[in-house]
Amino acid sequence: MAASTQNTTQASTLAAQKQVIVAEIGKSNDIPATTIGHFLAEYEHLAEKDKIKKFLRKTKLYKKGVWEMPREEGTKEENLYVPMETIANEIIPYFHGSSNRKALVSSGKPLYHKENPATNHSSSPDLVIQANGPSFEFPHRTPMLAPGLGYSNSASCLEMKLDKDLGNTLASHVPQVGIYSRQMFIQQPNRRFVRILVISENRAGLVHFDRSGAQYTDLININERPGDFIRLILGVSCPDEHLLGLDTTIQWVIGPDGRKKSGTLTTEDADGNEITYDLVEPYPVFNRHSIRGRGTICWTVRDAAGNEFLVKDSWRSERRESETTFLEKAKGLQGVAQMASFEEDREETAEFRGPITNGQRAEDNFHNRRSMRVVLHCYGPPIIHFTSMKHAISALRDAIAGHRNLIHQDRRILHRDISISNILLGNPGAQKGLRGFLIDLDMAIFWNRDPSEIIADCRTGTRLFQSIMVLRSFEKKFQTTHDYLDDMESYFYVLCYLMFCFSGAGDHVKAIIADEIKSWDDDNPKFAAANKTSFMNRPLRAQDCVAPYWHKACVSLLKDLKLFVANIVREKTEIFEGELTEEEQEDRIEELHGKDNDHYEKVLSLFDKAIEALPDQDPVVESSKATDATLADSPHGGPLPTASHASKSAAKAKRIPVPKRSSQELEDPEEPQVKHPRTARSMRSKRGAAKPSPLSQSQSKSTAQ
After folding, report:
1. Is 191 in contact with 209 (CB distance < 8 Å)?
2. If DSSP codes are grouped into helix, strand and coil, which group holds residue 665?
3. Which residue windows does the record flag with biased composition (Basic residues) (predicted)?
4. pTM value?
5. What is residue 333's predicted lDDT score, i.e. its pLDDT?
6. What CA dihedral angle connects 85, 88, 90 and 96, to 10 degrees?
7. Which residues contact residue 257 at a Cβ distance below 8 angstroms, ignoring those fewer than 6 apart?
8. Which of 164, 161, 196, 191 lies closest to 179 in space, CA to CA?
């Protein structure tokens, strides 16, 4: 399974947090190395040779060819902190000429972590480079003895080691500094990369983090190469936010309290012209808590006319088809979110790194990722914000119709990641076909490709909602294609989630995660598949699993849909567990797929029957009291989706876009790296725009699907 940071919020010790970083970026001998010369060339302009010579002659901190740091026997690591702070704080203002960067000893002072749900976890880098500027803000929570110290206003960290403990490479130190880096990505949501220095009294090297993982440099002797050491300090404290690793197309206004007050996001409109939107809120509505991977971050923005959009920033694997390709083909389809504009290949992680120097194994662990920005039209909130049973069932029905629209009409697009997070409610009063929307085509694929290229993979999708056949794809005999029936089964699990976990409608009612649902979320696909198979093979006793809130028409829908899905699973299992030849298996699957229209019509008719029987408004009952789903509810340690209180009013709530994925989502499996020549040009030349979709919820006159 691909690396992820799902267990981080359960990490109660530093050692446990390190293990999470290792699981995400790989073991030490898998991490790519490079020469420090690559980064020194990037930082060369920050300090001219003549100015370095002048500084070294002037300073009292570099004497007789060595920096003023303790070296006598018995020196402890902590004895290096204050001398390093002093050195950095003499270098930074001399060369930068700026007062908005300052080195501070932070060892022993808790820099609090930001997680979802909230956590008391913290970590303490030895030193931080505290920063002011349009991308930095006063931390949400700070150490009592060091107010203002946090990851949200740290340009970088300096990790100190005694020379005898440093070793010959930085590989073993990557997990430690990876903890700090991860928090900087989370608390500085416009981060493109993070670089951290590891320093001893004699040597130093740099560790680089981006959405492809980590890379570390060789070590230099800082006493023999003082100019290079100065440039490294200047690089990780640079006032130029772009060079520091921040996306300067997103900028904030910092209020008198040091916190982000408002902000802007600059991109391209549908005609390819530069446009600057206001951020509706200064913080993203979704921020993937990881280093390596897509790094999806979503913002709500507003144009000058007051129209709101959802902006999705992400880093796609180089070999993966861009989401914009599918969104372009989905233009005008009911039940599918519509794209307003996009920027393709804004940057790539290969541009941030040096050439790999430690062999094929490390090269195989690097997978280039390209930045993309998509502007989408806004709809309602996630389906978990439903206001009545009819609201929820209607939205789910129209999202299924949207899925059919993607598969049919010559588009042949298969979503492959149906989940509770990827279905939005339509706007109030929406007509049939526009009451629910399918979003997030990150994992989509063209279904008319060679079947060998769309083999089901248990690493693709959201574990809790994956089909049994996808979960069993780790078994050799179940090497079958991921098809529309797998996605149909995922919709069934979404319905189960709603009916098992919600005892009412509205944001005051929160999900209580049923034990049955928890069992489907097992890290191990073998156990998750076994638990779902057991559920499919036994009668559905509504009184044992369905919340009493749900109408008998919903219960009938659940039972009928379960029967439909169970029959499909049984038929597929017979095909692949029987004595059929490979050719006979293909013929049987092709025969099954030939019934796709009948399958969709059957499922949609089940939903239509239930919707017709449901009242427009739920009966008035006493408010249900429920507890939040917490970390303990999820075997992955991530929060299971619950109704959000992010909205400040009902009117505002309907504009809040959905978090693109739950935190227990499985990262997309890495694909082989494409070998291509490195170029100095920026990738930002490859931009594109989509003309505004003619489809709107108030104006569409097309027939509901």
Report:
1. no
2. coil
3. 675-689
4. 0.83
5. 95
6. -140
7. 138
8. 196
The letter for the amino acid at 547 is A
pLDDT tens-digit readout, 502-546: 999 987 777 788 899 999 999 899 999 999 999 999 999 999 999
Lowest mean pLDDT among 128-137, 151-160, 689-698: 689-698
Q: Are 534 and 569 in contact (CB under 8 A)?
A: no
27 φ, ψ to 5°?
A: -75, 165
Closest of 131, 210, 219 to residue 173, by C-alpha: 219
**Look-up: residue for tokens 């530093």?**
14
Query: In the chain, what is the greatest distance between 2 CA atoms, to the nearest angstrom?
Result: 88
Q: How many CB atoms lie within 10 A of CB 485?
A: 22
Whether residue 287 lies inside any domain: the answer is: no
- As to burial, measured by CB atoms within 10 angstroms (0-12 exposed, 13-18 middle, 19+ buried), residue 328 is middle
In a domain, 235, yes or no: yes
Residue 198 tokens read as 């590891």
Mean pLDDT of the 362-379 span: 93
Chain segment 181-193, per-residue pLDDT in tens = 999 999 999 999 9
Asked whether residue 82 carries a pLDDT value surpassing 60, the answer given is: yes
What's the sign of the alpha-carbon dihedral 304, 308, 313, 317?
Answer: negative
Looking at the domain assignment, is residue 653 inside a domain? no
Task: Say yes or no to pLDDT of 350 above 90.
Answer: yes
Strand 213-217, strand 33-34: pairing: parallel
* First-to-last C-alpha distance (Å) of the chain: 37
* Residue closest to 315 by CA, chosen among 353, 267, 350: 350
The Cα 348–Cα 685 span in angstroms is: 12
Residue that is written with structure tokens 């490294």 in the block: 232
The total of other beta-carbon atoms located within 10 Å of residue 568's CB is 22
**Structure token digits, residue 647:** 């909205």
Domain count, the chain: 2
* Residue at a domain's end among 247, 264, 293: 247
Rounded to an integer, what distance in angstroms lies between the CA atom of residue 449 and that of residue 101? 53
Matching residue, tokens 């979320």: 521
Q: CA 531 to CA 638: how far, in whole Å?
A: 20
Over residues 672-692, the pLDDT tens digits come to 333 333 333 334 434 444 544
Mean pLDDT of 121-145: 91
Return the SS3 of 321.
coil
Q: The dihedral of CA 179, 150, 238, 104: what is its sign?
A: negative
Radius of gyration (C-alpha) of the chain in whole angstroms: 27
Secondary structure (DSSP) of 576-645: HHSS--HHHHHHHHHHHHTTHHHHHHHHHHHHHHHHHHS-SSPPP-PPPP-PPP-GGG-TTSSPPP----
Q: Identify the domain containing residue 224 by its residue range.
A: 8-247
Domain finish residue from 247, 266, 290: 247
Share of the chain above pLDDT 70, in %: 85
